[in-house]
Amino acid sequence: MTGTLLMLVIGCGDEKDTGFFDLYDPTVQVEPSDETDNPNEPDDPNEPGNPNEPDNPNEPGDPNEPGDPNEPGDPNEPGNPNDTGGGGGTNTGDPDIDDDGDGFSENQGDCDDTNGQISPDATDFPGDGEDQDCTGADATLISVGLLNGNFDLEDGNGYPTDWSNLGGAWAWQEHDSTIFIDGTDSGGFFGAHSPMGGALQLWEAGGANTSNPGESVVYQEFTTNANWSPADKVFWLTGWGLHHTVDPLVGNAEAYGIIRCLDASGNPQGDAITQAINAQTQLESWRNMSTWVRCNSMTETVQAILMFHQVDFSTDRGTVFFDDVAFNEAQ
User: Fold this and answer.
1) 176 Cβ partners below 8 Å, 6+ apart?
2) What percent of the chain is modeled with pLDDT above 90?
């Protein structure tokens, strides 16, 4: 009865005291006549999910909200035949549409148009069982021709055979031997990563390397010939690095591997750097290091580089060892 009296009083428009506030029930919500959207009010026509709700494009979750993938007619709506992809992972079935937004449709060679990481222009990671570049098979690694990558050979003068030096301090360290620092036997024992041969030893160069102060660098390079070119190819450099309790790395000294692509004039066309051995790296623990790069069409020469780098000659010091380095082309 209270509710019925309330509706009659309001309907008559009587301005006298009707007892409204005495009869008001706080559990009943009355919407002002100018309110357009109270999403929490029962039976509000603008309430989310109400089938009679008119379009409120700013309401979260509104199926008619601009950009909502469930909006009728949205070109990126899953299953829409006009789907442009947008990385949504839905294949429309139209071979001329780039569904995953990677720049290639099925008719342009995309072998999985629901995955933006797979296309003819993608880099195929060898040995992962995936055909990222749509060649029909997972990439394999083919040796570029790196010599003495395991440092088992020494040239008779205390340096690893077949490696060239661009300046700085370097030497060959024999497996199962004591470590020599600046020609002095430290008494510390060294074990190579592979139990034979030896390893490359690099340490701070200071100003001794006049062309690149603070760097000790060894490398091998491979140049275009009648049968081979590094242009438009992907290269991988892997290896192992270590620093020792004897002369550990300190300061900002660090060592790493580099792949560098060069044009016919020797100008860099791209490079990539492996993880670094530095003062925070665990001592006497061989660390796996790797990197890859795609050399561009201007590339005439590609280099595999091992480097010790220091910035402050007085504080960045130490010795690092490299072993079992491999340099390969991905095919």
Assistant:
1) 190, 191, 192
2) 50
The CATH number for 164-330, chosen from 2.40.240.20, 3.10.20.880, 2.60.120.200, 1.10.580.10, is 2.60.120.200
Contact 301, 230 (CB under 8 A): yes
Say how far apart CA 236 and CA 192 lie, in whole Å. 22
Q: Note whether 256 and 325 are within 8 A (CB).
A: no
CB 104, CB 119: distance < 8 Å: yes
Angle made by CA atoms 263, 234, 239, in degrees to the nearest 5 = 105
* The total number of residues written for the chain in this structure: 331
Q: Which residue has the tokens 């995309």?
A: 110
pLDDT reported for residue 108: 86
The CA distance from 241 to 175, in Å, is 14
Tokens of 110: 């995309």
What residues are paired with 56 via a beta bridge?
none
Q: Who's near 95: CB < 8 A, 6+ residues apart?
A: 105, 106, 107
Phi, psi of 188 (to 5 degrees): -80, 145
- Classify each residue of 242-268 as buried b or exposed e, where b means 16 or more C-beta atoms within 10 Å of its C-beta: bbbebbbbebebbbbbbbbbbbeeeee
Rg (the chain; Cα; Å)? 35
| Among 149, 320, 313, 176, CA closest to 237 | 149
What does the alpha-carbon distance between residue 110 and residue 276 come to, in Å, rounded to a whole number? 36
Q: How far is residue 229 CA from its own chain's centroid?
A: 27
Q: What is the pTM of this model?
A: 0.68
Please determine, for residue 18, whether its predicted confidence score (pLDDT) is greater than 80: no
Q: Which residues contact 146 (CB under 8 A, 6 or more apart)?
A: 220, 304, 325, 326, 327
Q: How confident is the model at residue 297 (pLDDT cuts 50, 70, 90)?
A: very high
CA dihedral sign of residues 75, 77, 80, 86: positive
